[in-house]
Design goal:
With 285 residues, the protein is of the alpha/beta class. It is built from twelve helices and six strands. It has a single domain, classed as Orthogonal Bundle (Phenylalanine Hydroxylase), CATH 1.10.800. Helix 4 crosses helix 6, helix 6 runs antiparallel to helix 7 and helix 6 packs parallel to helix 11. Bound molecules: phenylalanine and cobalt (II) ion.
Length: 285
C-alpha cells in the first residue's frame, strides 16, 4: 500500500478530516505553533528520521539541497521560519489550511505563488499510512521543490492553467498532470533516476519502489500520454513518468492547452498499468 495519498485537487473534501470553521474566504488559517503537543513534535522527529535516511540516492539534487537548508529535524516547522527562506529563494509563500481546499481556491493560491500546507500532523496509528495530506507530507514532500526556480515557475503556471481549465471541463486531465509530476514525478540525472514527486519523497515505501524496484513502468514524459493515463490512489504507482529536467516540464506545458483538451475529449483513456511501446520506456540503470 502507498503510505500516502497525496494532496490532489479534484478530490472532494467530503468525509475528509479538518476543521473548516473559522477559515478565511481563501480557506487559510494562522498556524498556531504553540498548539502542537510534545507528542506531536516527537512523532514528527520520528517521521523525519525515518525518511531522511532514504533520501540519498533516491531524491533529485535540487530537492536534497533545499531539504538540507530547512532545519526540519527539531520538530514540526514554523511556517514563518520556512517562509523567510522561501521568500528569498523563489518568492513563494506557504499558507496554512485545515486540509484539502476546493479546486478554484487551490489554483488561485498557486497562481499567486502561495502553497497551501495542511497544518495538522497524522495520528500515531497513521505513522505508516495516511489517506490525506498532512503537515509532514506537505513540508517534507512539497516544500523543498518550491526552492527550485524552474519548478517553482511550473507550479505557478499550473495554478494559472487550472483557473483557465475550470471553464473548459478539463480538470480531470490537469489533475493527472499534477499527479504524475508534482506528486509522483521522476527525473533522469547523470547519477541515475531520481524522484522529485512529493508523494514519493514523503512515503517510506514508495521512495524505493519508484527508483529501485523493477516492478513499475517508467515512461518518458509525454504530455498527451500523462493526461490520458488514469492513476491509482490506493497503492504504489504502476507507472511513473520521467523528465530530463524541469525545463522540459516547463516548456512542454507552456503552450495553450485549449486545442489539446479538444483532442483529449475524443481519445480513449489509458489504464494505470497500460503497456507503452518499448521505445518510450526508461530503464532502471
Ligand atoms: N499551458 C497551460 C494552458 O494553457 C497551462 C499550464 C501550465 C497547465 C503548466 C499546467 C501546467 O492551459
Ligand atoms: Co501532495
Amino acid at each position: 500500500m502507498s503510505a500516502e495519498r497525496p494532496a490532489n485537487h479534484g478530490l472532494s473534501r467530503h468525509g475528509l478530516r479538518g476543521d473548516y470553521t473559522g477559515v478565511r474566504p481563501d480557506y487559510t488559517v494562522e498556524q498556531d505553533p504553540s498548539r502542537y503537543t510534545a507528542d506531536q513534535h516527537d512523532r514528527w522527529r520520528r517521521l523525519y528520521a525515518r525518511q531522511i535516511d532514504r533520501v540519498p540516492g533516491r531524491a533529485c539534487e535540487e530537492y536534497v539541497r533545499a531539504l538540507g537548508a530547512l532545519d526540519y529535524e527539531a520538530g514540526i516547522p514554523r511556517f514563518d521560519d520556512v517562509n523567510r527562506k522561501l521568500a528569498r529563494a523563489t518568492g513563494w509563500q506557504l499558507v496554512a489550511v485545515p486540509g484539502l481546499v476546493p479546486d478554484l481556491v487551490f489554483f488561485e493560491h498557486l497562481a499567486n505563488r502561495r502553497f497551501p500546507v495542511t497544518f495538522w500532523l497524522r495520528e500515531e496509528a497513521e505513522f505508516d499510512y495516511i489517506v490525506e495530506p498532512d503537515v509532514f507530507h506537505d513540508f517534507f514532500g512539497h516544500v523543498p521543490m518550491l526552492f527550485d526556480p524552474v519548478f517553482a515557475d511550473y507550479m505557478q503556471a499550473y495554478g494559472r492553467g487550472g483557473l483557465k481549465a475550470e471553464g473548459l471541463a478539463a480538470l480531470p486531465w490537469l489533475a493527472r498532470l499534477y499527479w504524475y509530476t508534482v506528486e509522483f514525478g521522476l527525473i533522469r540525472t547523470p547519477a541515475g533516476l531520481r524522484s522529485y514527486g512529493a508523494g514519493i519523497l514523503s512515503s517510506p515505501g514508495e521512495i524505493d519502489h519508484a527508483v529501485r524496484s523493477p516492478a513499475p513502468r517508467r515512461v518518458r514524459f509525454d504530455l498527451r500520454r500523462v493526461m490520458r493515463s488514469r492513476y491509482r490512489i490506493d497503492a504504489f504507482q504502476e507507472t511513473y513518468f520521467v523528465v530530463d529536467g524541469f525545463g522540459q516540464l516547463f516548456d512542454a506545458t507552456a503552450p495553450d492547452f485549449t486545442p489539446l483538451y479538444r483532442e483529449l475529449a475524443v481519445l480513449p483513456e489509458l489504464s494505470a498499468d497500460a503497456a507503452p511501446g518499448e521505445d518510450v520506456l526508461v530503464p532502471l540503470a
